[in-house]
Amino acid sequence: MRLFFTFITLSFLLLSTKGIHAQALPPLAWPQGKRMALSLTFDDARMSQVEKGTALLNEYKAKATFYVVPATVKQRLESWKQAVVSGHEIGNHSLNHPCTGNFPWARQKALEDYTLDNMRNELREANQQIKDLLGVTPQVFAYPCGQTFVGRGKDTKSYVPVIAELFSSGRLWLSEGPNDPLFCDMAQLTGMEMDGKNFDQIKPLLEKAKETGQWVVLAGHEMNDSGEQTTRLSMLKDLLAYAQDPANGIWLAPVGTVSEYIQKQKKPAKP
């Protein structure tokens, strides 16, 4: 009998708590009555992004977020300057693209050999170089390889707090779901892969996000017709057409624009 009453009491408390949270966290109201937010993001400042990708985005009057490495920006500097003029957002993707040394190509810039001070200095230097090259200071960041640590073993530390200090947001990679705008940590936004996918694989994600009012951040690399780590232009055309159909209720905007909007909505109203 005692077990029965304990179960009833716990059930009542759970239901009551759920009700309190539901009242405390009403759904976020997206601009113009939109049902969800969508941000398109691309990493590394790869050549195909300004050779083919920005032209397609401009055709649809869509603005994306490009997380760049200064060295690769220099390879197509005038094209990247034009991307800025076109209204695309430029984010920081580090100076040297450090990842775990388990990738042989990253061994000389392995996160295991970094300290928090090393990382902070590198990100500040990357911001300065990007400003010198493109005239903008990045406000958003994407973690190279989606990895958020420095050091190894007992000395491992998260550099998420460094990102929260320097940027308005930090985006992960290969995440498994979208962002809840009222709960998400701006320094650890989920980033879902769109490389190698067709629109039929992306559409269900958007449909689900519309039901819950979430923010989908899609992440890609190359922008071309085929190849590894490539967001296919044919998929992107279908995605842009779908996202910009008013009937679908999608707010398509760069990461910085959406994160700024969310932060303003979270601020308590002045008395």
UniProtKB/TrEMBL annotation:
<dbReference type="GO" id="GO:0016787">
    <property type="term" value="F:hydrolase activity"/>
</dbReference>
<keyword id="KW-0479">Metal-binding</keyword>
<dbReference type="InterPro" id="IPR011330">
    <property type="entry name" value="Glyco_hydro/deAcase_b/a-brl"/>
</dbReference>
<dbReference type="InterPro" id="IPR050248">
    <property type="entry name" value="Polysacc_deacetylase_ArnD"/>
</dbReference>
<dbReference type="InterPro" id="IPR002509">
    <property type="entry name" value="NODB_dom"/>
</dbReference>
<dbReference type="Pfam" id="PF01522">
    <property type="entry name" value="Polysacc_deac_1"/>
</dbReference>
<feature type="signal peptide">
    <location>
        <begin position="1"/>
        <end position="22"/>
    </location>
</feature>
<keyword id="KW-0732">Signal</keyword>
<feature type="domain" description="NodB homology">
    <location>
        <begin position="36"/>
        <end position="253"/>
    </location>
</feature>
<keyword id="KW-0378">Hydrolase</keyword>
<protein>
    <submittedName>
        <fullName>Polysaccharide deacetylase family protein</fullName>
        <ecNumber>3.-.-.-</ecNumber>
    </submittedName>
</protein>
